[in-house]
Amino acid sequence: SVLKDRAGEKGCVFTQVDMSSLSALSCPEREENRGEYAENVFIYKAMEGIRISLPGTYQLENGALALEAASALSRKGIHIPESAMRKGLSNVSWPGRFQMLKKSPMVIVDGAHNRDAALRLRECVETCLNGRRLIFIMGVFGDKEYGLMTQIMAPLAERIYTVWLPDRGRSLNPEILAREAGKYCAGTQAVDSVETALDMALKDAGEQGAVLVFGSLSYLGQIMKETERRNRDDRQE
């Protein structure tokens, strides 16, 4: 409503995603090919069978928003054919957003660092990882809504490891984060390094579990590098 009012003040055309015209055709984790969820398929208005190469239920809304933006450009004379819209969504990449780095045990990273992102992440976990043993790794900046984040996410986990972020000056002390998360998950432990946390989480998860790393984009690069190193070691074995 704030954006709509502001657009009116500025004489801008206001377009909003029509949620009643958006519906999912599949959530890949529900399919027989469990764990292989590289895309979502959805319908938006007159377009059917739209494929977006991003997991996570909230990406359907992002996809619909992109379609509305492309349509708005077309109305302004910058024609974008439907085939280009479909190709763009099919090829899109968004590192660090419910991104699977490893299949077994599953390792997923997500840059959720506030209340709204945590709510959407919980929605993804409950939809796409239902029934899996969940091990979390968390690291957050001290000025973020970590109390609300742990309240939303921590009850889903069997174990949680909290870590320092690369910028320790801004990072919340993992001991403080562990105390907060421990209110909702008894198996919570502060760990001094990302590498140790990942080792412990992978061991806890087992082949059928999932390790979810979230809280801040700033340390996901470390997790990506460590996971890739372990993937290389596994291939060499």
Can you tell me about this structure?
The chain is α/β, with parallel strands linked by helices and 237 residues long. Helix content is 40%, strand content 18%. The strands form two sheets. The protein has a six-stranded mixed β-sheet with strand order 4-5-9-6-7-8, with helices on both faces. Strands 1-2-3 form a three-stranded antiparallel β-sheet. α6 links the parallel β7 (159-162) and β8 (188-190). The protein starts with a helix and ends with a helix.
Topology:
Blueprint: H1 2-10, E1 22-26, E2 40-44, E3 47-52, H2 59-75, H3 82-91, E4 99-103, E5 106-110, H4 115-128, E6 134-138, H5 146-153, E7 159-162, H6 174-181, E8 188-190, H7 194-205, E9 210-214, H8 220-236
Parallel strand pairs: 5-9, 6-7, 6-9, 7-8
Antiparallel strand pairs: 1-2, 2-3, 4-5
Helix pairs in contact: 4-5
Q: Segments where pLDDT lies below 50 for 5+ residues?
A: 28-36
Spatial order of strands in the largest sheet: 4-5-9-6-7-8
Q: What fraction of residues sit in β-strands?
A: 15-25%
Structural class label = alpha/beta
User: Mind summarizing the main beta sheet?
Assistant: 6 strands, mixed
Note the gap between the termini: 57 Å
Mean pLDDT across the residues is 91
Helical percentage: 40-55%
Number of helices: 8
| Strands, total number | 9
Summarize the helix and strand pattern as letters. Answer: HEEEHHEEHEHEHEHEH
Rg is: 20 Å
Q: Globular, elongated, flat, extended or rod-shaped: what is the shape? A: globular
